[in-house]
Amino acid sequence: MKKILIVDDIKVNLKVLEVLLTRNGYAVLSAMSARKALSLLQEHICDLIISDIQMPEMDGFQFCRLCQLDEKLKHIPFIFYSSARDQKQIRQQARKVGAYTVVRKPADPAQLLKTINTVLNDALNRTMALTGQERCYNRRLDPVPGTVGWTLDANGDFTNITPAVERLTGFSVKHIQEMGKSGWLNRVHSSDEEKVRNAYKQLFQDHVPLDIVYRFKCRDNRFVWLVEKSGTPYGNQTQGCDRVDGFTADISAGITDLERRMESREQRVIQTFSTGVSHDLDNMLNGIADYIQLSATTTAGSRERQRFLANALKISRSALALNRDISCLSGEDKAVKKNSLLTRVVARVVRSLLQGSDIPCRVEIPRGVWPCRVDTRLMARALEHVIINACEAVAQKSDGRIEVTLQNISIEGAPVENRAVSETRHDPDRYVQVVIEDNGCGIDDPYLDQVCLPYFSLKPKDMKKGVGLSLAISRVIIGRHGGEMAVHSKKNHGTKILILLPAEPGGT
């Protein structure tokens, strides 16, 4: 049974297609966003993709490009199913990104099924026609419409290159073959040149396939962003490289779009952060001033005056705590004094926050947890923020509960991706993991990437107790200890915070 993935941000459209296809003998997967579709494609093998074009976050064209650049997905035929009026322009763009065809929405069911059958048969025929070395060679040489396929010999000369190179660079095939790869590398942006040359050195000497992104200067002096990948060179390390096949694709549009989105996101974060800090400090300072004024003008007895001053003191302490959090985020509070064992800090924080609370909390700190020294003050703040968030998440549930567990984690040969980890951890294979889990309201998947941003909150205004810095502060503090923090959550099922900290050498 052929499996078809359908992608559309409108639920009724998905349902109509799903019913039509299942009734005609197809297995169907459906997704309401390109992001979800990509996730499904990592788990399921599909024979055809039918996608809408106009979708939020990532449109159909971007989705198709990403599929075509993925070795595991590029063979899947792609049909656009769109109600856009300018069908001519849509079809041109569809061809550029590698789609098979465009079907106008709504389509006659019989005609749509006929198109699907034709596409699947063509894909099967193409696959059967390519065998052995021919299939391998063509798959590498001309992987995606709009990219440049090439073959280099042992001397670095282009023995084959597809005509798309002229559209990409402005240089003819003949000119590119005359300049060779050495001439090509001379046009690489100076900031990327060393990286690219090292990649080619590894390709020819160590037979490490190419997988690089760099900037290239075209004939009209424009720089374009290119992704370049290759197969493993033919030949062996003893006899040397005979030839290698690869492809080069223009990803400038994607890079520009990503930079624009990142810049926009950073601006929103800064604006939200500065507005939030200003608002919170303003409220606190006004509160302090009001209580001091009340204490000075009240005709009540000394007990009432003391209550006003106590409230002013309480608010001033909150302001000081906010200032410490801001210092931590800004990088001013960098000192980490590893003066206490993690197990003791965890036990103390849980006890102080949940002792006498109505919220059930199970704490599991097994014997034999590897010693992990932390800054008592900073780590307590990090854990407090996480546990307070968990308490607020389960507050409205009659069966709300929190679990805090510690365990040893050994990651043999783990790659060092975090600079803080590489600089501070003593044994790259030994960690202590803290898991703080609740069964509260949970978080929608689209918001998971934002929960650690300053002043990001999903709570209604009347439920907010803090100032929106909690998880941002926790992540910064854990990072300064050479650790990592991850958030896993599911709406209406709860949230799990995983904290990974490097263990001390030796000991049990």
UniProtKB/TrEMBL annotation:
Enzyme Commission number: 2.7.13.3
PROSITE patterns per UniProt: HIS_KIN, PAS, RESPONSE_REGULATORY
Keywords from the named record: Phosphoprotein
Keyword Transmembrane: no
Catalytic activity: ATP + protein L-histidine = ADP + protein N-phospho-L-histidine
Domain PAS: 150-207
Chain ranges of the Response regulatory domain: 3-120
Record-annotated Histidine kinase domain positions: 276-505
Stretch forming the signal peptide: none
Domain of life: Bacteria
Protein name: histidine kinase
Biological source species: Desulfotignum balticum
